[in-house]
Amino acid sequence: MSDRELAENVRLHWGKERRFLNSHHSPLTTYHLRNARGFTFIEIMVVVAILAILAALVIPRIMGRTDDAKRTAAKVQIRNIEGALQLYKLDNGVYPSTEQGLKALVEKPSVGVIPKKWKIGGYLPKLPEDPWQNPYKYMSPSQSRTQAGAPVGEYELLSMGTDGEVGGEGVNADITNWNLDKD
User: Can you say whether the dihedral through the CA atoms of 88, 93, 95, 99 is positive or negative?
Assistant: First the structure.
């Protein structure tokens, strides 16, 4: 048999088989073709309703936690600044003065007592702002007093909270280094 005859036989065989398959659908294939539809409108609406209920329950819980997250971030930043202040004192024997401020942790002070062993590169890469985009207040010595009248510490770090004003209650309360564990 020549190549040409062989090719003709294969073509005829495939043609007969294709006609047979096209004319004889199995019941299973017919069932799948008849029922191969998408989701109904009601099914989609049920899914959308379920998602809406879940969103209504979850979103208020997430959205209500924004103030708590910002207060926690402020506390973490205050602890980091405290660590830098401790390193400054270890190197120089004193904390920066109120006049020098927290800027003394980033660049060598040029006013007040000039530190002799100030670390090149500083103690912080930059001065952080509190989560409400306000600078932290720094006082050394601390201006706050205990109930007995003694200063609360050698220095005081303060974020004025959500309202940006001294004092306040709840989310507006000030966050200081000496009341970090208060709430």
Answer: negative
> Which amino acid would we find at residue 173?
A
- Identity of residue 33: L
Write out the two tokens for 73: 């971030």
Q: Rounded to an integer, what distance in angstroms lies between the CA atom of residue 83 and that of residue 100?
A: 17
The residues, any chain, with a CB within 8 Å of residue 103's CB and separated by 6 or more, are 109, 127
Q: How many CB atoms lie within 10 A of CB 131?
A: 20
In this structure, are residues 154 and 141 in contact, taking their beta carbons and an 8 Å threshold?
yes
The reported pLDDT for the residue numbered 123 is 92
Residue 178 and residue 78 in contact, taking contact as beta carbons nearer than 8 Å: no
Its pTM surpasses 0.85: no
User: Please, which pLDDT band fits residue 173 given cuts at 50, 70 and 90?
Assistant: confident
